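Sequence, please.
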């Protein structure tokens, strides 16, 4: 089992290496790939130094699985070349997510749709993954009608440059800007670029991707995505209107029984999820579960997860594990 990590020097790529090690991912050969700028540099993994290679050399090495996190353009150009060489690509960018011929996978929810023929598999957007992990069990039981999401997203979701911008600003150093505005002590109501409809690309990912993952177009979603100066993970305030009424105790029970979801919800002890505590964890944390008293069958909750873990690296690696366990690669 040869595994390539494409984008190994990036935020997601470096967490991928950590998660591969932690989960003891069953590979015999590891191929680390980045841009030509990094080719020749060394990265240490489990005490061994690996030399970073370029994309063409990696295609020629014919890995069984390539874990991609090197941006949309790299994926668009290179994922098909790997696929043609027989590699199964699991891609973290937005390049293939909404392509009708590609599957968008959160293994706990729809891993069962994967087949041997899937050579390019899309990993959903980070803010989508944590959202659907909490929505999926509730949707099956109560049938969602409308979801309203407001996000509070970590700078690590933008990549290395944004984390550096925040660090520089907190130290009072003038440096390169990943955002149009300062992020320290700020809240920027723009994640990614604006589209013609006035929403950002990130907001429209939250609108479209849950429907594809849940295989259901019958509910509607609207979102506002905001960048805040946190580094540990993304938070989401979510309002869900269901077709059917629910019991709050049942909602908590259902979420507590969902693999990969942890309920942290105790008002007596001021217990609720927060990004500094979700940092470096693979689970999705849910709290502040309460009835929306302004309309029937409607729930409010707060969802937090480490965007570089379950939102990216961990989900990608879980897809790889699913493929191996089910002989699909
Ligand atoms: N950050 C998140 O929370 C998150 C979550 C889900 C998905 N993603 C997606 O994952 C991807 C990477 O995000 P990131 O946050 O890790 O970004 P990042 O920290 O900026 O890292 C980008 C990585 O891509 C490599 N790269 C850039 N251009 C390349 C090229 N032309 N050929 C080969 N490699 C190239 C870089 O290599 P060099 O070091 O050589 O430049 C680096 O390893 C993006 O598509 C992003 O949308 C990110």
């Amino acid at each position: 089992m040869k595994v390539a990590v494409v984008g190994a020097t990036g935020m997601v790529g470096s967490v991928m290496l950590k998660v591969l090690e932690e989960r003891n991912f069953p590979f015999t050969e590891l191929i680390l790939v980045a841009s030509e700028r990094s080719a020749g540099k060394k990265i240490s993994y489990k005490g061994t130094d690996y030399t970073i290679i370029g994309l063409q050399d990696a295609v020629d090495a014919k890995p069984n699985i390539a874990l991609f996190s090197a941006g949309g353009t790299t994926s668009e150009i290179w994922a098909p070349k790997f696929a043609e060489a027989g590699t199964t690509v699991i891609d973290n960018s937005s390049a293939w997510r909404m392509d009708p011929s590609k599957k968008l996978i959160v293994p706990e929810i729809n891993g069962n749709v994967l087949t041997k023929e899937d050579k390019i598999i899309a990993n959903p957007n980070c803010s989508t993954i944590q959202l659907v992990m909490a929505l999926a069990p509730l949707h099956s039981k109560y049938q969602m009608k409308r979801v309203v999401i407001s996000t509070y997203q970590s700078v690590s979701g933008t990549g290395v440059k944004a984390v550096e911008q925040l660090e520089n600003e907190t130290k009072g150093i003038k440096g390169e800007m990943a955002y149009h505005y300062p992020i320290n002590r700020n809240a920027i109501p723009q994640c990614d670029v604006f589209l013609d409809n006035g929403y950002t690309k990130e907001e429209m990912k939250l609108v479209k991707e849950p429907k594809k993952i849940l295989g259901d177009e019958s509910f509607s979603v609207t979102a506002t995505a905001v960048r805040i100066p946190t580094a540990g993970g993304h938070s989401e305030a979510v309002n869900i209107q269901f077709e059917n009424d629910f019991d709050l105790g049942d909602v908590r029970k259902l979420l507590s029984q969902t693999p990969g979801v942890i309920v942290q919800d105790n008002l007596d002890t001021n217990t609720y999820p927060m990004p500094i505590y979700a940092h470096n964890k693979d689970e999705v944390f849910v709290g502040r579960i309460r009835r929306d008293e302004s309309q029937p069958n409607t729930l409010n909750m707060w969802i937090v997860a480490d965007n570089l873990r379950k939102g990216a690296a961990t989900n990608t690696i879980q897809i790889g594990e699913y493929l191996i366990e089910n002989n699909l690669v």
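Residues 7-13, 34-35, 37-38, 55, 69-72, 74, 92-93, 126, 156-157, 159-160, 307-308, 311-312 surround NAP (CB under 6 Å).
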